Amino acid sequence: MPMAGATTPATLASCVAISNAEVLSQLVVLQLKNPGAPVIIGSIPSIMDMKTTIFATGAPELSVMLVALTELGHYYGLPVKGEAGLTDAEAIDAQAAAEITLQIILSALSGADLVHNIGLMYHSTATSPELIVLADEIIGMVKVLMSGMEINSETLPLDLIERVGPGGTYITESHTLKHFRKFWVPTIFDRSFTKTKSMKDCEELLNQKTIELIKTHKPKPLPEDLVKELKKMEKTWFDRVGLKHEYPKRE
Fold first, then answer.
1. Which residue from 104, 151, 197, 245 could staple onto 238, CB 3.0 to 4.6 Å apart?
2. C-alpha of 222 from chain center
3. Chain segment 38-49, per-residue pLDDT in tens
4. What are phi and psi for residue 3, nearest 5 degrees?
5. What is the DSSP string of 158-199?
6. How much is the pTM?
7. pLDDT under 50 in the chain at which residues?
């Protein structure tokens, strides 16, 4: 997590160069210890805000440098870890939405192989379930941007356009019935034509969806052999630091 202006010179190129050198040096150490070990390289470079001295996780410079590091990693033929969905905001507001949207878009465009830390806020000192849900909504929109546009006789039905003609409507056509479900549908963003007192706004829908997910979501269980391996690793760590740990019995 090199910080331009504090732990690196105050230029993006310098911060990227030092960040890249750090990653590659640790890659060498890892491969000397365990040759052929699979890796995903990555870093979290940003700037020091000169007014507050914080490590700015919502800064646009962070995204620019991550794009550069992704390009370098792919040049080396290595998968790269990206970052997105982080904000310096203390609350889920316009600042938070703007910062995580920029990061998610640039991360998708860069082709990062693994993107994490979605939901971190207030300079990465807190995790917000609501921010994760908001980011998921934005990710859905970005997926539409990244999917492009398919051009063929089915997606561009010239015969249908000619038959309906100017002034016609496609709402009753079977082609519409076949394709309209492919449109992206928001779950917390509001497209209502008119508002009534009983209708919830975006903030209320976001809070409601988050609480519902927390109450009802059941993660897919991990394979038993993987659980055993994770427990073995965890026990090794507890033994090394001199702590006792007992696993609860599974029902």
1. 245
2. 22
3. 999 999 999 999
4. -120, 110
5. HHHHHHH-TT---TTSHHHHHHGGGS---SSS---SS--TTS
6. 0.86
7. none
